[in-house]
Amino acid sequence: MHRFDEQSEQLWHAAIEMARRRRIEPQPVRRPRTREELTPLLVDTITPSGIGSDEALRLFQEVVAEFSITGDHRRFFSFIGHAPTEAAVIGDILLSAHPLYGGDWLEGAGAIQAENVVLTWLAKLAGLPPEAGGCFVSGGTVGNLSALHVARQSARSSRGDPIGKRWALVTSSEAHSSVRSAASVLDVDVLTVTVGPGEKLTGEAIAHLLGYEGERVFAVVAAAGSTNLGTIDDLISIGRVCREAGVWLHVDGSYGLAALVSPDARAKFAGIELCDSFIVDPHKWLFSTYDCCGLIYRDPPIARRAHTQSAAYLDALDGDDQWHPANYAIHLSRRARGVPVWFSLAVNGERAYAAAIDATLETTRLAASAVKERAWLTLLAEPELSVVAFQRIGWSWQNCIDWAERLLQEGVAFVVPTTVAGEPALRLAIQHPNATIDDVIAVLESLA
Ligand SMILES: *Cc1c(COP(=O)(O)O)cnc(C)c1O
C-alpha cells in the first residue's frame, strides 16, 4: 500500500482522468440526499481486504461527488460561494501529492515561503507595513478567534485585566456569527451596536460605547463585507477611534476583503490600513480551494507571543528566528493551504483576479437593477459588494423555503432564504465570475 507499483500507476491515470472530466464537463446543480438514502450506498465499503480501487473510484464518482453540492456552479447563489480557478484546483492536487508539514519552517520552508508571499501581497493591498504577516488557517472562524486571542493578550500585557469586570469586544449586530462564537470561547462579553439593513458600524458609535465601557474593551471587530448584505463598516472613523483609545481593531474581511485585488473596488475599504489584524478567506471570493483563510497581523511578534506553544518536543524550533506558521494561530499541525492560492496567483496574475472580481460586482449591480424593475420584488439595500438582498412581496418564510427547495429539485439554482431585520428575505451571493445576469434573471423570474 506504500509502494508505487503498477496498480498505483493505473489509479493515478484513472483519478486524474476523472478529475479532468469533472473540470471539463458542465456540471448540474446537484442536490443532497437524506442519510437514509445514502446509508445503503456506502454500506460495507470498509472490508478486511478492501474493495479495490476501481470500485472505490466508482463510489467516489457516483456517491461522494454526486450527492454533494459543489460551490463552483455559476448558479450557486447561497451563503458565500466558492469558485476555485483551474490553477488553484491543480495547485491543491500538487500540494496533496507532497505531504508536507506546514507548521514549522524546518519542515515546510518552501511551502511556507510561497504562503508568505501571498500574505505579504495581501498585507500590502491593505496598506499594512512590510513587517505585517501571519499564516493561513482553516477558515474565518478560526481566523477571528486566533486574532481576538492576540488582541486580548495584548490588552492584558499593556494594561492588565480590568478590575472587577469582564473583558469585552465591540461589534455590530451584523457581525458574523463566528465573532460571538470566538467571544464565547474566550469567555468575554460582546457589546453589540445595533445597525439596520445596509447601515454601517461607525467610529462615533464606538466612541460613545468606549465612553462608559472603555476600561474593559480590548477589541473592536469591524466587517469589511458583512455576510448577509455585504456591508462594509466605516473603517476610517473606526480606525481613528481605536487608535486614539489604544483598542485593537480587527477587520473581518473573510468574504469582502477579496475585493482589495480590484483597483476599482479598493477605495471601498479606505481605513483598512489602520487595523491591527484582518482576515480574508481565499476559499470564498479569492477563487481558491477549501479550506483557506489568510490571517494577518500588523505586528506579528505580538501574535507569536500569544500563540507559540512550548514543549520539550518543540524545543528544537525555539529561538531559531524562522517563521513558524504554528506560532500565529490556534493550531500546530497544518496543511500549507495557502500554496494553491500562491500557485493560482502566480499562474494567472493580478489583472485576471481584478477582472474576475469586477465581473461579479458588475453582475451584482445589474442584478440589483433587475430586482428594482420587477414589481413583485423589493430591494432591501443597494449592494456594496456581491450580495443582493430583496423581498418577494407577500411571501412568508415558508413560501421562501418551498421556492428554494423547488429550485434545487429542478436544478435551476441553489439559493437559500435569509432574514433581514427579522423579515423573510431572499439573497443572492454572486461569487462565480462566469455567472451572468441571465442566470440571475432566471431566478428572479421564477419568483413572479
Ligand atoms: C464566512 C465568514 C466567516 C467565517 O468563515 P469560515 O471560513 O466559514 O469559518 C467569518 N466572517 C465573515 C464575514 C464571513 O463571511
User: Which ions and ligands are bound to the chains?
Assistant: pyridoxal-5'-phosphate
The number of helical elements comes to 13
Strand tally, please?
11
Looking across the biggest beta sheet, what order are the strands in? 1-7-6-5-4-2-3
Termini Cα gap: 57 Å
Structural class: alpha/beta
Gyration radius, in Å: 23 Å
Low-confidence stretches: none
Shape: globular
Question: What is the element string, with H for helices and E for strands?
Answer: HHHHHEHEHEHEHEEEHHEEHEEH
Q: What fraction strand?
A: 5-15%
Roughly what is the average pLDDT, rounded to an integer?
A: 95
Helix content: 40-55%
Main pleated sheet = 7 strands, mixed
Structure, explained:
With 448 residues, this protein is α/β, with parallel strands linked by helices. Helix content is 42%, strand content 12%. The protein contains 13 helices and eleven strands. The chain has helices at residues 6-24, 35-42, 53-65, 86-97, 105-125, 140-159, 177-186, 203-213, 235-245, 300-307, 339-372, 397-409, 437-445, and strands spanning 133-137, 168-172, 189-193, 217-223, 248-252, 277-280, 293-297, 377-379, 387-392, 418-420, 423-429. The strands form two sheets. A seven-stranded mixed beta sheet has the order 1-7-6-5-4-2-3, with helices on both faces. The protein has a four-stranded antiparallel beta sheet with strand order 8-9-11-10. Strand 10 and strand 11 (423-429) form a beta hairpin. The termini are far apart. The structure holds pyridoxal-5'-phosphate (PLP). Residues 80, 139-141, 176, 178, 223, 227, 252, 254-255, 281, 293 line the site of pyridoxal-5'-phosphate.
